[in-house]
Amino acid sequence: MQQYKWYWRIEPDVDFYCAITYDPFVEMAKHDKVYGFTISLPEEPRTCPTLFREMSDWKEDHDIRTTELWKAMVAPAWVPWPFRSMLSWFSQRDRNGDKWSMCHYWSNFEIANLEFFRGRAYQDMYKYLDGTGKFYTERVSALWLRDSDVRLLTL
Fold it and tell me: CA angle 83-70-122, nearest 5°?
């Protein structure tokens, strides 16, 4: 993949309801965009009970500023401050007790500049997640759910 700068992930049997009359890679480069995706499904919580917490901890430990996109993914805890951190014992919550909105982290449509994934920040985050030993096992363990649940998963 080193020879490629861009990729476009489209699931099989995708139908577009309008013509794409421009080159999306040219448009992304022109507007200095590196990653585009869709979020269309709520996450299946049993497939990744600690992923949000790990991402939130990594964000906090690396002093990454909170953006509007991050805020859109988080539902603030309703419990008063002295007790909020107690909520962090529950899955899908950060160390402050705030809850992940369950927006789907995975995408069935992605378009990206591969330099984003090759960059130090992404590589550091990926190594951190991989080092927890939870990232892959949470998704793989989803295969052991009931057959009726498996159709909800994106692995």
Answer: 115
